[in-house]
Amino acid sequence: MELLLALPVMLPLVGAAITLLLRHHTRLQLGLAVVTLLAIFAIALVLAWHVTQEGVLVLQIGNWTPQLGIVLVADRLTALMLTVSSFVTLAVLVYSSAQSVSENVERTPVAIYHPTYLTLVAGVSMAFLAGDLFNLYVGFEVLLASSYVLLTLGGSASRVRAATTYVIVSVLSSVIFLAAIAAIYAAAGTVNMAELAVRLDGLEPGTRMILELMLLVAFAIKAAIFPLSAWLPDSYPTAPAPVTAVFAGLLTKVGIYAILRLETLLFPFSQISNLLLAAAGLSLFIGILGAVAQTDLKRVLSFTLVSHMGYMLFGIGMVTQLGMAATIYYVAHHITVQSTLFLAAGLIEHRGGTTNLIRLGGLQKLAPLIAVLFFIPAMNLAGIPPFSGFIGKVGLIEAGIAYDNTAGWILIAVSVITSLLTLYAIAKIWNRAFWQEPSEEIIARDVPMPKVMTGATTAMISFSLALTVFAGPLMNYADEAAHSVLQRTPYVGAVLGDEAAGDLRYRIDDQGHRIEDGVAVEVDG
Amino acid sequence: MPVSLALLLTAGVLIACGVYLVLERTLTRVMLGFVLAGNGVNLLFIVAAGPIGTPPFEGSGEPEQMTDPLPFAMVLTAIVISLGITAFGMALAYRAWQLFGHDEVPDDVEDRRVLRRRRRRSQDAERLPWSQALSEEARRGALAQSQGLGDEDDDPLGSDLTSAEDVPQDATEADEGDADSLRETARRRREHRRGEAVALRHEIRDRTSDEEDI
Questions:
Q1: Could you give all domains of chain B from N- to C-terminal order, each with its CATH number?
Q2: pLDDT per residue over B178-194, tens digit each?
Q3: Contacts of residue A162 in chain B, CB cutoff 8 Å?
Q4: Is A230 an 8 Å CB contact of chain B?
C-alpha cells in the first residue's frame, strides 16, 4: 500500500520521458498523458479511502531512517489535495488538447507541451507528498521549472516579457527558501518535518520566529499573498488559457498548502498569527480593488485570485479547528472554481477573439452555452448561496465568530465586503461580455466551439457542483483533516513512532484544547 | 556548535554581491546575481554541516569525528537545480535580446499604464527637454527601431498591452458609446508617440554631429 505513494510522482515523470521521445506523434502523446493523469486520479482516490480507514501512510524511500532519508507522507489533507489537483490537471489537459488542434496553432504548443505538463504534475504531487523540507523544495523547483517553460511556450514578445518578471520573482523565493532550509538545518540538525516538529518545539522563541518568517516569506511569494503578490496579475494572463487555469488553480494552492503545514506541523502556537491575519485582510481587500479596476477578463480573474488567497490565509491565521477545516474545504473549492473560470475565459476568447471586456459583447445571445458555463463558476466564486463558495465562506465566517477576537471581527467584515465586491467585478464582466451590444467583428466571427473544450469545462463545473452536493461529508472529512493536522501526533507518530509523538510540546487533545508542555492552556481567543 | 567565520563572511559577501546584481535591470546580470547569491546560500549549508571532520566513509574512522554528509548531499542537489534554472534564465535573456534588442526587465503593465496616463494629463510634456519628456520605453523603442527591429506602429514592449492600451483611459460609464472620440484619441496618441521617436532620432543625430564637431 505504501508503494502507492511513490506513484503520483513517478508516473508523470516516466510519462514525461516517454512523451518526450514520442514528440512527433501528438495524438499518442496526448493519449499517454491522459492515461497517466487518469491513473494518478485513481491512485489519489484509493489513497484518500485508505487514509480515512487506516490513518497516515508513510513511505520511507530506500528504508533510510526518516531523519536522514526521504519520506513521502500522505494524511487526509494530502490525499484531498492530490485528488482535487489530479482531477483538475486531467480536465485541463483534455481541454487543451482541443485548443491546440483548433485555432491558435502558432500560439499553442508544440512537442514539449505534454512532457512539461506532466513534470508540472509530478512537481505538484511531490510538493503535496513531501515529508521533508528539502524534498518540498525540490518539488517546488520541479513545478516552477515546468511553469517557466509553460509560461513561455512559443516565446512571443508578451510571454517573454511576462516570464521575465515571473522567473526572477520565483527564483528569488527559491533562494530564500533554500537559505531558510540551511538555517533550519543549522538550528535543528534535520529537515524531516516530523522530526523538526519535535525539535523545533524546543528552540528559543526568537529563533523559532526567524525560521518561521523566512519560510513564510518564501511560501507567501508562491501563494501570492498581498505584499508579495504583484507578480501574479502581471504574468499569468499572458499564458494560454489552459496553462493559466492550471497555474491559477494549483500553483498558488501549493504555496497555501505549504503555509498550512508550516503553521500547524512545524510552528504551532505561532507568534505571528496576527501578521497572517493582517496579510489576509490586505490580500482580500487590495486584491479585489485591483479586480474591480481591470478591464481585461483574465486580469480581473487574476486579481480575484490574489484576493481570494486571503480567505485561505484567514482560516490558517486563526489556527482553530473550525478555521482549518473551513480553509481545507475552501482550498478544494477554490482550486476547482478558479481553474474553471479560466477555462471559461478561454472559451470566451475562442469565441470572441479577445479577452478585452471593452471589445467583447453580446455573447449571451451569440453563445448561450458559454454564458451558462461562465455563469455557474462565476456565481460560485462570488459565493452565491447554493454553491460551494458560499459554504466555504460561511464556514470561515463561523470560525471567525467562534475565534472572537478583534482581528477576527475585522476580517469577517473584510471577507463580506470582498465577497460583495467580487460579485460586483463578476457582474461587470457579465454586463460587458454578455450583455453589451456586440460589435460586427464578433457577430461575423462564427467559430465552431470544439466539443472537447466545452465538455472539459462542463466536467469541471460538475466537479464543483459535486463539492456543493457532498458538502456535508466533505466538511466532515475536512474537519477530521484539520483535527489531525492541528493535533500533530498522528503525523509525527506515523513517521517516527509514537514515542517521538509523545515528545511534542505543543499539540491539542481530542477535545480540541491546546496543550503546552503536557498542561492544558486556556484558549485565549 | 563552532562556526567558521571565514565561511560565513564569504557567504555574506557573495549574497550581498548577488543582491546588488539582482537589483540591476538587465536579465543577464540578474541571473548572475542569482548564481552568486545561490552560491552564498550553498555555503550556508556547509556552515550548517558543522565543524570539519574526517570524510564520512563507512569504516574509515569514528562516526563522531566524521563530517555530517547530509548538507553536502543537499548542496549538490541545489547546485544541479540552480544550473538548470540559470540555463533557462540565460535562454530567456537571449530570446528577449532577439525580440527587443536588449534584455532589460520590463516595467509592470499597470505601472506603464499609470505612467502614460500621467504624462497624457500633463500637457506640457512636449515642451520639456527630451530627457524628461521621453519615457524610458520610448527611448528603448527608438533604439529597437533604429536597429530595424520592431514595428513602426507599436511600442515593441507594449504589444501585449492589447487590453490595457485599448481601454479608454479614465473611462467613465458615460463616454462608453463614444467610439469615434476613442479612436481619435488612440490615433492622436500614436502620432504623438511616433513624434517622440522622430524627435529623439533628430536629437541623437544632432548630438552625434555635435560630438564630431568637438
A1: 5-100 (1.10.287), 109-213 (no CATH)
A2: 444 445 555 666 666 66
A3: 160
A4: yes
Interface check for A289 against chain B (CB to CB < 8 A): the answer is no
Reported ipTM: the value is: 0.87
The answer to whether residues A213 and A254 touch, using CB atoms and an 8 Å cutoff, is: no
Distance, in Å, from the CA atom of A385 to the CA atom of A498, rounded to the nearest integer, reads 44
* Residues near B130 by beta carbon (within 8 Å), at least 6 away in sequence: B199, B200, B203
Q: Which residues contact B62 (CB under 8 A, 6 or more apart)?
A: none
Distance from the B195 Cα atom to the nearest Cα atom in chain A, whole angstroms: 24
Question: Which whole-number Å values give the CA distances from B167 to A72, A357, B163, in the listed order?
Answer: 50, 9, 6
Measured between CA atoms, the residue of chain B closest to residue A163 is B92
Q: Where are the domains of chain A?
A: 1-269, 272-487
3-class SS of residue B66: strand
pLDDT tens-digit readout, A176-220:
999 999 999 999 888 999 888 888 888 888 899 999 999 999 999
Long-range pairs for A303-307 at CB < 8 Å and ≥24 separation?
A: A303/A233, A303/A425, A304/A338, A304/A381, A304/A422, A304/A425, A305/A224, A305/A232, A305/A236, A305/A248, A305/A252, A305/A338, A306/A224, A306/A226, A306/A229, A306/A232, A306/A233, A307/A283, A307/A418, A307/A422
pTM reported for the whole predicted model? 0.84
